[in-house]
Write the structure tokens for this entry.
Amino acid sequence: MPETSAHLSREDVAHLARLARLAVTDAELDTFAAQLDVIIGAVARVGELDVADVQPMSHAVAMTNVWRADEVRPSLPRGDVLAGAPAVEDDKFRVPRILAEES
Amino acid sequence: MITWSAAETAAKIAAGEVCAVEVAQAHLERIAAVDDKVKAFLHVDTEGALAAAAAVDAKRAAGERLSPLAGVPLAMKDVVVTKGLPTTSGSKILQGWRPPYDATITSKIKDAGIVMLGKVNMDEFAMGSSTENSAYGPTHNPWDLTKIPGGSSGGSSAAVAAYEAPLSIGTDTGGSIRQPAAVTGIVGHKPTYGAVSRYGLIAFSSSLDQAGPFARTVLDAALLHEVIAGHDPSDSTSLDVPVAPVVTAAREGGRGDLTGVRVGVVKELGGEGYQSGVTASFEAAVATLKSLGAEVVEVSCPSFDYALAAYYLIAPSECSSNLARFDSVRYGLRVGDDGNNSLEDVMSLTREAGFGPEVKRRIMIGTYALSSGYYDAYYGQAQKIRRLIANDFEAAFGSVDVLVSPTTPTVAFGIGEVLDPLTMYQNDLATLPASLAGVPAISVPCGLADGLPVGLQIIAPTLQDDRCYRVGAAFEAAIPSVLANIPEL
């Protein structure tokens, strides 16, 4: 088990920001690194209790296999959905290129 | 007219003493007069409100039966999607977005003839305890405009306390209904997790988020609770059980007799860290409950001391996943799409520009807590503590009917006064355990400290929401109105 009295470095926070797709600025990195270190240090208290035999609880109400009736229902009108999108082309969401141009 | 309770307003509309359009107009005028000071509303839907009110009047004129809250105005938290009406969740990333559908609770409110006046302010994505994290500026507490109205549902609490609406909807993930209700001197209830559909709530922490009512009286809150609660096939975590008889309970409680009701004072939710004025007001409230016939005992729930640590791992973990949907593709902001930046760059630039600092902090904490190598030590461990907290509740409810505590450790603090994130999190000390266990809890005004309202939290076992309302209504009937002391705006 890793040290729970972790100390987050500026580099750690830069890595987290990349994973979370946040293009944070250098100034933000300084602030966040200091703040997250304090917060993580405080929540690391969860490691103080011996809970080896305790079942984790992910949800207030344990439910499995919740199905709704298999009925055909109208979808949202395409135009209404696309109206909220930042960019649309040919009745589709337009996104920046994800593949390099073929030569 | 604006000072009437929701129950009174509905009765007068049903009896034809006043028409719904007049009621809507009076509230719209009030908003126009005071909201430049309170800043509860992000969007006022004058046209929609008047049309909904006119529909109620037409229904009455046609001799149709009106539902119990028909014609009563309501303010909707901006985290709840409303078809065609701007919905931002307090974030810049959703500025200008108009949802293509209604949340289940929005539909239920419309179907009940309740008149939606508009959308109200909140901490961005419901993360905060003061509304200072809203991208659109803070809401001000109508008791003292230099103070916070609580959060994250601070627009909802301020609108009701400022008589801009008799009812509002909030959501509570770690205290976001109860804490704002407490610091503005009104009633707020977090239902049992699963009692109210989450379909159409912009998700923060899915295993904790729950919508509920704000009102100036316990009975009004119960009336709104009955409208929004119930099973919804569109939410797989919605409970397929009958709605708790909360209105009946509020009426019964209003008779002021708590003989035989066993009340547990939670040892861990008080003492150190709680302001002396809050403690004094709470102790007086406990004495009042005794005078109504309740048997009061002290109860210990030792794992509650770890609720804050567990919550601030679980909620950020879930939010880091939920907020991944803001990827600049299907809705909201897009930044940096200049033809050169990659999709990932555009996502990162958009999220950087669209999210405020608290949201970024929580996304990064969650990303950290869920990352490989740390999962067991943080998220896994927090989930086990969550179980211990639920077990403590179960044990406590073996010997008492309800648990009580102060709702918040302090009265409303000044806007701009709390700058450190961890200090801000301490506001949730008393409200977090019920959120983690999914049990229902209400905050009812219990007095003043330094001239500002204090809330009494009443917690009940899962699905026994009616107990919160019964005890809350009995208590409310036994003390002078706290809200009567609110200064003129």
